[in-house]
Design goal:
Layout: H1 6-12, H2 23-29, E1 31-34, E2 37-40, H3 41-48, H4 52-63, H5 65-76, H6 108-113, H7 115-121, E3 123-124, H8 132-142, E4 144-146, H9 152-159, H10 163-170, H11 179-190, E5 194-197, H12 204-210, E6 217-221, H13 225-234, E7 241-245, H14 249-252, H15 256-262, E8 266-271, E9 279-280, H16 287-290, H17 294-312, E10 313-323, E11 326-327, H18 329-332, E12 334-335, H19 337-345, E13 349-357, E14 372-379
Parallel strand pairs: 1-4, 5-6, 5-8, 6-7, 8-10
Antiparallel strand pairs: 1-2, 3-9, 10-14, 11-12, 13-14
Helix pairs in contact: 9-10, 11-12, 17-19
Amino acid sequence: MHHFTLDMLLKKYKHSPADNMSLDDFINKASVVVGNNTYILSDYMKSKSIDRSVIQILLDSIKNRKDYLQRFYNMSLRITDDNNQIHGMIEPMKNNEMDNNKGVVFKNIIRNLHFYDILQKTSSGLENIPTYLNIIDNLYKKNTIDYKILTPSSIHYMQKGRLGSVFSSYYFRASILNPYLIYSLNINLLKGTKIFTPTLGWSSYMVGFLESPDVKQYVGTDVIPDVCKKTEQLSSRYSKQIDIYCKPSEDLYKDDLFMKKYRGHFDVVFFSPPYYKLELYKSSNQSTTRYKSYEKWLKNYWEVTVKLCNELLEKGGRMCYILSGYGNGKKSGNYDLINDMNNITEKYFNLVSVQPMYNKNVHATKHRETGEQIMLYLKK
């Protein structure tokens, strides 16, 4: 497989219009974006009483961007012998201690493989939260500054040499379920051998389950063609039964060949379903694109997917999903996802247990919900 290398990242940002600019040039030519409005930096500085010394720090950081990019790559994208496999490298987490940010380096292979999808193409369903990579592109390539970079709290971090903390705190990156967490869940809770996942979770579900020695088979589906393709490519590292589909889960329920092949076949179904419109993925078959209202989404996506999982599980089979309630603010109102989705699930399954999934929330915008729960159900 082709990985996203440090050289590729540095080449992407090799040149910046700020490289040969003086402070005065930058102040007079750079721009600041506030929502749909754009201002010349010099005018914006006057309106917000921003000192020249702050802009000098920002300009220096742009000119010395290689340092930040190397740190970011080594922390978030670098693949090494220590994080390229899980089994035998680290003990699985115990029940009720499941933490999505423990062993965080095991996310690197996922983030590397789906670099653009996670950091740029997937957008937030909440207003005024640009993607991480769009912000970096605008700053390094266009001298365009998002206004949040010049807020007092951001300036505080910038003055401490921590502009990277501003990027990670304020700007959107698609959420990743750590393959190490999935591996731990299967070892200590699910104990599955034949696994189906109604989404691929950026390939992390496959990696987490296939790192488990007892898993013999993995079948998964997704609606993002590039995710399906890359998951298939990644599957070549495992000598187990693997089948990847690129089709909405609710459509598989109506696929006679698929249902005939897999009805009553799996002992575990696992996934973290879409949190309605919290994250907007690039796919014409995305569930929130197909079903325009929350009520239609619950009926035509969620309930049909639950029915699919019920049909695919063997007697005594277990379904586990990770879910959170969230409010979608002014854009679309508030949704009680946990109760609404669980009420539908409990038509077909009996609840066995609930435990928290711990998840460090570094985003000052709080576009992610930290109160995520791991729900375990038994087929009725």
